[in-house]
Design a protein that fits this description.
Rossmann fold; 36% helix; two-stranded antiparallel sheet; Rna Polymerase Sigma Factor, Chain: A; eight-stranded mixed beta sheet; 14 strands
Length: 369
């Protein structure tokens, strides 16, 4: 299935930090067909390094979307039944306005003059897109990691527009450890001489710093078991140590590849802005408590976590579930066994598919009935 990307421009958006972006563009893709009642729409929310290309094949790259194993005919998000939408987040670098976009006031990229953004700002722009598409109520929202944060924010900020939500491997607020990992990544970029205070768009990008940031991040996405199974202590193309600082181990080679591959598709300044938005996210902020935040929520919830996820461990999902149950919100929770760590929501989709498929079917039946 070849998919087409779309871009919509809005006059402006007001941000939590007090700034206004004008104009603002949002890139998105859709899969399946919207029914006459506009009651089968599902918003797919991407994680930190994702983009609007969630499923199908991109005509530009020929590559499948990042959640292609979950979205499509007969899959968890069955496009024979549902109309799925995925947009690139505000602050991104894949078609939606971000630090690399041209500032109309200067004719140059925003770079670090781009205003600091929040998860709520991302959701605010998504709501503008959904309104533009003429969809009053979403059947569901779903995403993993940062996508799960957005799904939670939607349920609290726009309860009238959400029938159900499926946050996966997510949290209602970052822990000190999660903030710490993000800060290491940001400092790796800022310490790169080529970062040039963010003004690198006409020169050499901070490739080394961004690659190191991605390497650190990628370690947190895996588990000890998955790294042992995938790499162990195997050497890369040799039978003995080189006794130097070139690659010896398979895992070193893998991380270097992941770092260099990321540099070719992601903007370093977007890394700074998006990770900061994740760190600022706290659903209880301004509400007194997490449970109080959910007092406005009217959606059904399916919360999923994974046993080996140590970046977004199950206790954080369980905290969300307890807060929802304390307000008598309809919520189902499942911790799925997996050895893949945080990446499980992207790769270990068998049981996840069955859970999502059943939850969506029962939700749609209630709406249609």
């Amino acid at each position: 299935m070849i998919v087409e990307a779309h871009v919509v421009r809005f006059d402006s958006i007001s941000l939590d930090g007090g700034a206004t972006l004008a104009p603002v563009e949002v890139a998105y893709e859709t899969y399946g067909s919207l029914n006459a009642q506009k009651s089968n729409a599902i918003l797919i929310l991407h994680a930190f390094s994702g983009d609007a290309h969630a499923a199908g094949v991109s005509p530009e790259t020929g590559k499948p979307g990042w959640w292609d194993n979950m979205i499509g005919p007969g899959k968890a998000f069955d496009t024979n039944k549902y109309f799925a939408i995925c947009s690139n987040v505000l602050g991104g670098c894949r078609g939606t306005t971000g630090p690399a976009s041209i500032n109309p006031a200067t004719g140059c990229p925003y770079a670090m003059s781009f205003p600091v953004i929040t998860i709520r700002d991302m959701v605010r722009l998504q709501k503008m897109l959904i309104d533009h598409l003429g969809i009053a109520r979403l059947l569901s929202l779903s995403g993993g990691s940062m996508g799960g944060m957005q799904a939670l924010e939607w349920a609290v900020s726009y309860p009238e527009a959400v029938v159900s939500t499926i946050p996966i491997a997510a949290t209602a607020r970052h822990s000190a450890q999660q903030i710490a990992f993000n800060e290491v990544g940001r400092q790796a970029i800022i310490a790169d001489p080529d970062w040039s205070e963010g003004n690198y768009y006409t020169g050499k990008p901070p490739a080394r710093g961004l690659a190191v940031a991605r390497m650190v991040g990628h370690i947190t996405y895996m588990s000890d078991d998955s790294m042992r199974e995938k790499f162990g202590r195997r050497l890369r193309g040799k039978n003995s140590f080189g006794y130097d600082f070139d690659v010896d181990f398979e895992v070193e080679s893998y991380l270097r590849y992941r770092g260099s591959e990321f540099v070719s598709r992601f903007d370093a300044n977007s890394y700074l802005y998006i990770t900061k938005a994740m760190d600022y996210f706290d659903l209880s902020n301004g509400n007194g408590s997490l449970a109080a935040a959910f007092e406005r929520a009217t959606a059904r919830f399916l919360v999923i976590s994974f046993s080996s996820d140590w970046l977004y461990p199950s206790y954080q999902s369980q905290e969300i579930v307890r807060a929802l149950r304390s307000r008598n919100v309809d919520v189902a929770y499942c911790e799925l066994p997996s050895n893949y760590g945080h990446d499980a929501f992207l790769v270990d989709v068998g049981e996840q598919t069955e859970l999502v498929r059943g939850f969506l079917a029962s939700t749609y039946e209630k709406v249609a009935g």
